[in-house]
Amino acid sequence: MKVEPGGGPGAFSAAARRRWYPVLAVLGAAFLVIAAVYVPVKLTSTSSYCTSCHEMRAAGASWKQSVHGQVSCVVCHINPGLSNEIVWRLQEAKNIYATYLNAKGMTSSVQLPSNAACTQPSCHVLSQLKESFPNLRMPHRSHVLMRNLSCIDCHNGVAHGTGAAATQVSMQRCFMCHNGAAAPNRCGLCHIATPKTTSHPADFMEEHGSLALGHEQDCYRCHHDPKAFCDACHARPTPPHFSGTWRYTHGSAAKADTAGCLGCHDYQSFCRQCHQVDHPADWTAKHGLVAVKGSESCLVCHPRTMCTTCHDQRGVRVP
User: Fold this and answer.
1) Which of 7-11, 56-60, 229-233, 309-313 has the lowest mean pLDDT?
2) pLDDT digits (tens, 9 = 90+) for 74-93
3) pTM of the predicted structure, to 2 decimals
4) Mean pLDDT computed over 40-49
5) Residues 172-183: what's their mean pLDDT?
6) CA–CA distance, 276 with 291 (Å, rounded to integer)
7) Is the Cα dihedral 175, 179, 185, 187 positive or negative?
8) Residue 24 banded pLDDT, cuts 50, 70, 90
9) Would you kindly state where each structural domain of the chain is located, as residue ranges?
10) Rounded distance, CA 61 to CA 166, Å?
11) What is the pLDDT of residue 118?
């Protein structure tokens, strides 16, 4: 053993320790880098992380109650594949540090589930999906491959919808193609059994307006295209509407066909604006003080001919 002058047995061990300092520094730096990557990756892999943001609490609550409540958020919202996971997790790591450092960089965008995410082996394999149900035909494979539909085009409420919206499929989606031109629109094409009788009562044409005002989406389950179906009638008001004096002369028509008016107009929010204006008992004598300041508010309900006729009878000039 070679010992430097003035050194003792401890001199060698001190020198050896100094040679280990760079190694320990590298190992420490590597540990910090691994921890800096691992912690964000571990955190962003949990659904509790995704739903911890206050903006996502409503989505988290509906997700927990859905049939996908046991499926992690990242399974649906990250496309399968290592490269996709790396890109997404790098962005989330940036979001985490930006949040804690109160810096810019947070993104509020959420990637919608892709077909690749839905049809991965652990979920819904496309070739194994059913094509026939108790009262419905739905060849999933052909719709996805032929028409390039996304799963969420139809099943958009399956993970975050509430009540019936979580499982029902809106037929508006079907009529993106099945409009009678691009594809057939016969009910029997998909529905194995159709109702033998009409689902509407005899007076439905007169009463449907008040029902549709509050439950519009129920109508669209069968009448899928509002522009093609509803507007055929509702976009063409009766000719007297364009007379220029309809607001003053519509009373007799409304009395003869009140239901027809209520098919478009809601009494509480529309008709009452004029029909339940509460003028005081002495309004005839005192209304001039209001009208002289501007007749516009009066003319909302009353035609100017009403003013001139009454004033002429009394010999009072209309301002």
Assistant:
1) 7-11
2) 888 888 888 888 888 777 77
3) 0.49
4) 74
5) 78
6) 19
7) positive
8) confident
9) 9-111, 195-272, 283-314
10) 13
11) 92
Length of the chain: 319
- Residue reference for tokens 């409503």: 58
User: SS3 letters for the chain?
Assistant: CCCCCCCCHHHHHHHHHHHHHHHHHHHHHHHHHHHHHHHHHHHHCCHHHHCCCHHHHHHHHHHHCCCCCCCCHHHHHCCCCHHHHHHHHHHHHHHHHHHHCCCCCCCCCCCCCCHHHHCCCCCCCHHHCCCEECCEECCHHHHHHHHCCCHHHHCCCCCCCCHHHHCCCCHHHHCCCCCCCCCCCCHHHCECCCCCCCCCCCCHHHHHHHHHHHCHHHHHCCCCCCCCCCHHHHCCCCHHHHCCCHHHHCHHHHHHCHHHHHCCCCHHHHHHHHHCCCCCCCHHHHHHHHHCCCCHHHHCCCCHHHHHHHHHHHCCCCC
